[in-house]
Amino acid sequence: MSQIDLILLNGNIITMSSKKSDGHAQAIAIEKGKFVAVGTNEKILSLADETTKKLDLKNKTVVPGFIDTHVHGEALGDRFSQMNLRNVKSIKDIQQRVKNWVNRIPEGQWILGRGWDQDKLAEHRYPSISDLDQVAPRNPVFLLRVCGHLGVTNSRALQLAGINKDTKLPQGGYIDKSLENAEPSGIVGENALELIYRVLPVSNERTLMDVCFSAVQKMVEKGITTVHWIVSSPKEILALQKLESDQRLPLRIYLIIPIEHLNKLAGLGIQTGFGDDKIKIGCVKILADGSLGARTAALKQPYSDAPGTRGMLLYSKKQLKNFVEKTHKADLQLAIHAIGDRTIEMVLEILEKVLQKRPKEQHRHRLEHASVLSPRLINKMKNLGIVVSVQPHFAISDSWLINRLGESRARQTYAFKSLISSGIIAIGGSDAPIEPVDPLLGIYAAVNGLKYPQERLSLDEAFRIYTVDAAYGSFEEDVKGSIEIGKLADLVVLSKDPYKTSLDQVGEIKVELTMVGGTIVFRSSDFQKAALS
């Protein structure tokens, strides 16, 4: 008989197995990082010998490890060392926080922050260059909007970035200028943000490793055992590899690589799935439009609260088609950021032509967000076999949705139930640090947060988009996403049974223990007494 390394017993184990008869269990046996038996206490204990360790769950609820399918990892780690503006209520609040930073850092040092939302500020406008110059005349300041698609800078930052009234606008970029004298207002958006990013201080290897470690530590505290990590630079991949070689990487990573690096991947013949159980190559990401919050997502009809704009496409149709063809031909999965209905329609037209020319049964190309939909677009996604990566917590944060889109379009935004009911595989993520990196809050939003009840998910559907369906989105449904024999021993212990909790309290459930490959990577203070015996 093979040796069982660990047994978890006396649990309320929700397996998420497709077999209804195997949906619940009391105990689990783990060997060499995988589930080898699931069943009753009696059955599982019979497999133990004198070397087997045991963990008494004391009737706690166990679910498969959560999979967050959309996280900006470095930005999440940076958030813990930068100014958090998510809850500011006025431009005066922003000014005070910037002033506090000025008072404790050297002159000339960058001040960075993220999280402001003009719709939630008392002034109901963007911060401006003059707002920041008043409190930080000698320090460059760059503050990203919560969506990450728009930022505000002061004069010093614009000077360092070389942005002035004569600056040539990058394709797919936005630099707001005064109508009176064409001078920049401080607001920079989309591809023009690269003008700022290229002059920001570059983190050294050790700092970047620490930033990434902060991010993964936060994730495992929230029960995340696999993350689809959106990479900002190759150095980030190296930092993650070094964390793994130092045995400091507590979870699994599916890398989402920016389109700028497609030629390098394709030239080396690297395909989706290259790697191991801890780090592997996943998707190639294309940013096709902006965000609803910044009014840069491309819509077919103008924004209801800004009739002069329909948002912006970041690439021409020809350019986007070229990217899609190259990525598909290289056997790499696509992850295309497409929020507005104009963008989604264009992307689907391109995918349809590419897939007709070069069919592939299991391409599993993804649309990230796919926010503003119509029944026709949903039907087309279904016919093309598209996977949709959704972020349910936006339904709570975007309180301005009806004002921005109007009632009829708002009803077709965040159409989670319509997607799933049509047979489309939807996978769940946070888009952290834009939204909280917490799957339980995402699940809460999916079952409660949507204004239109017809698009709310059942609790089981909401759990699936963060577990077994999320695994499908990375071609890994055979190795993770449910607690079944032969799969990786990734699981989470919860403070309450969500299926016996009022739906409006699901977001209050806490993670008490996170296990990856049979190893405990997080244990809450409330669960410290549950020692291995």
N-to-C terminal Cα separation, in Å?
21 Å
Task: Name the shape in a single word.
Answer: globular
Uncertain runs are none
Strand content: 15-25%
Q: What's a concise summary of this model?
A:
With 533 residues, this protein is α/β, with parallel strands linked by helices.
Q: How is this fold's topology laid out?
A:
Layout: E1 6-9, E2 12-14, E3 24-25, E4 27-31, E5 34-39, H1 41-45, E6 53-56, E7 61-64, E8 66-71, H2 73-79, E9 83-84, H3 91-102, E10 111-116, H4 129-135, E11 141-145, E12 150-153, H5 155-161, E13 173-177, E14 184-190, H6 193-197, H7 205-221, E15 224-230, H8 234-245, E16 252-258, H9 262-268, E17 279-287, H10 317-329, E18 333-338, H11 341-357, E19 366-369, H12 375-384, E20 387-390, H13 394-397, H14 401-405, H15 407-410, H16 416-421, E21 426-428, H17 439-449, H18 459-465, H19 468-472, E22 491-494, E23 511-516, E24 519-523
Parallel strand pairs: 1-6, 2-7, 8-15, 9-10, 10-11, 15-16, 16-17, 17-18, 18-19, 19-20, 20-21
Antiparallel strand pairs: 1-4, 2-3, 4-5, 7-22, 11-12, 12-14, 13-14, 22-23, 23-24
Helix pairs in contact: 2-7, 3-4, 7-8, 10-11, 11-12
Describe this structure in words.
This protein has 533 residues and is of the alpha/beta class. Among the domains are: 6-64 and 488-527, Roll (Urease, subunit C, domain 1); 75-197, Diaminopimelate Epimerase, Chain A, domain 1 (Roll), CATH 3.10.310. It contains 19 helices and 24 strands. It has an 8-stranded parallel beta sheet with strand order 8-15-16-17-18-19-20-21. The protein has a 6-stranded mixed beta sheet with strand order 3-2-7-22-23-24, with helices on one face. Helix 3 packs parallel to helix 4 and helix 11 packs parallel to helix 12 (375-384). The longest helix has 17 residues, at 205-221. It starts with 5 loop residues before the first strand and ends in a 10-residue tail after the last strand. The mean pLDDT is 95.
